[in-house]
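Go through the following before class.
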Amino acid sequence: MSKGLLERNPLHWFYGSASIAFGIKNYAFSYLLLVFATRVLGIPAASAAMAIGIAVLWDAASDLILGHWSDKTKSRLGRRHPFMYASLLIFPLSFWLVFNPPFEINESNGFWYLLVLAIVIRTGTTLVEVPSVAQLPELESDYDRRSRWLALRQTLGWYGGNGIHCINFLFWVGVYGLDSHTGYKIFSTVGAVAIALTIIISSLGTQRYAMSLPQPSESFRVSEIWREFQQMIQSLRNRNFATLFGYGLVSGIAGGLSTALYIYNTRFFFGFTEVQIGITAIAVLIAPILAYFVGPLLGKKLEKKRAAIYTTLTYIVLFPIPYILLLAGYWPTLGGGLSLAIYTTFIVVEVACIIIGAMMMDSMMADVVEDSEISTARRSEGLFFATRAFGSKAISAGGILSAGLILTFVGMDTVVSAADMTMAHRVNLATLFLPLWCGLNLVAIVLVWLYRIGRRDHTTNLEQLAQRRDSAAAE
């Protein structure tokens, strides 16, 4: 299938569009929820971060069971779609409720309210995201085209999250202020409606294809749960999967740390206003387009592993530079136009690198499906994608908790404006944050270097599986 034909295929767009819902939720949880909880609900940063972190652990654990369950579900709707439709029952409403408590939040109930709603939202996200992304290995088997499917999915996910971020800081939270509930009410209402529409469109759009696929050879059996766990362990012993899982563990901490601190760093460390943060978000809309076209080309030229490593290294080098320049006295006037232009340029390139790295990692995970099937005679794409997400989510909880602790240690709980942010605050924040973030990402690169499935290996796996199917059909 040529590139043009792929992009004229409606299924390509329906598959990719599911990530918009995830992007909106991810933006809210990664960048906004901690700020909302501390500045509007009045929950201490460490307590709010703990509630969000515990919810991540729940989400991570539930991913494994649901991924394996969707691999073995027999339904006239297909293996994945019953879960995707179930998400509609809880995801949009719980997303709205977390920003709109139906009763007064105080010190005694704030932590528990945030914890319960965060758990429900993450469960709803799992129900749609894990089965949806796991459709890829059946939709596309070609080594390079898989990267293009995931390029679209990553691009639309970033547009979902960053798009609503732009609007939010230009018209809602950015206009009413970080301390006003009004902007969050508008954001959560629009976000909940967008999440619901995305789930419906993507699920219905991929429904017919899902119904045409063969049913799994065996069903998930709760009565034989120990046997189910044994099958899961057998699949997860794959060495190439282990490297990607390890990458997810380590990079998850770094990602949770940086995203939880993003608003604090932009608003207080660099002194940008809410509207300026929105302008940066508009500029970042360029990054997914760059990644969409550049990522698959890099994957084809360098192969996926090297493309992921090189883009991640670029990101690691670029990220600390603005912080170092500011502390060294070489940064333009805080909050000024030149400061915003330089910072935004760095962010655009960094986000493009993040997206390319993510699409390469997910495409590599898709290739693990056939590699595992060689030894297990069972397709486990739901389990693999869920478990990689499990590692990233579970350990990102550590990043979020670390962010909350860093904020409390630095004294950010008392900082209400950029004028309150002293140079001592900035030095302490950068000293605690940057070395930890850089070190974690370097470890992640070392882990992904151990991955061993290249284009030739994937082709060999496909040939062996085709021969096995032909032999079984001839008997």
Q: What stands out?
A: The radius of gyration is 22 Å. The first helix runs from residue 3 to 7. DSSP finds 22 helices and no strands in the chain.
